[in-house]
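Work Package 3 (structural annotation) set out to generate three-dimensional models for the target panel prioritized at the project kickoff. During this period the team completed the workflow that converts sequence records into discrete structure tokens, so that structures can be stored uniformly alongside our sequence database. As a representative example, we reproduce one entry of 315 residues exactly as it appears in the project archive.
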Amino acid sequence: MLSRRLIRIKVFKVLFGRIASGSDSLVAAEKELLTSCEKTRDLYLFMLNLAIALKKTALAKIEGGLRKFHPTEEESNPNRKFVENKFTELLENDAAFIKSCESKGLSWGEYGSFVKKLYAAIASREYFKEYMSGEGRSVKEDWALFRKIYEEELEDNEELAEILEDISLYWMDDLSYVLNVILKNMGSFHKKGKVVIPSVFQKEDDETYAKKLLTRSLVNYDEYTEIITGYIPNWDLERLVVTDLTLIVMGIAEAVAFETIPLKVTINEFVDISKFYSTPNSSTFVNGLLDRILQNMYKSGKIIKTGRGLVGSTE
């Protein structure tokens, strides 16, 4: 499930936290990293479970209208199209999915007020009104509705962001990625007739990559910091932005530890991460300094590249 970019970000967060706290326990750091990775899949399950919560909210509204002493015509003959949507039906009937959510406590019950507000907002949208007023019913139409919901209603929702942060600090910054994975996998749900619950890591060697990158970065932090200071002799180490220093250390660690990853890939990845997790000028600083260090280490034989790692290794 996790891309290499997201793995790098998670390693960065764990490493930064460890350096800031002065903790150098590899066992604890690795445990925290793997927990962080597992939590991203939990968020995937939690956000899928939101579809069921929306259905239950809509159903409760229908049932409330039917119980009224003097219901309106609309309340007496409710439009059940949304509550009979085949996408939510598939989710509810998938025992493995429901069991996974229940075992991890991934329920929206505590956040009923948010779900009601979200449903009200969705019900006011033109795409929802068109869906509800359509005469026909099809799986394609049902899937398209929830694709629209996941595309347009969740990523920039401030209240949702607060809820996710309150539940788990590991979910910070993961929502956009998780929503994209859900949208990517939705097509497979219908074909397979069940919810796709992805592995935490996309490839077999990604877990090894994550652990190795963290270990090499943490163990060699002081050594690589000394290398960095050698390239900026007129700078006091305390003047360096800690996030920049951490990212450059990780860049060196990756370049040294992984022979098949091209230097340009390593540099570009950590420069891009700096754009989101450091200062406005950090990307230029990280790019220039990391490029100089890695090129010189490559030329001196301290970095070895083989296979596809040779591509883009030198200017």
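The longest helix spans residues 26-66.
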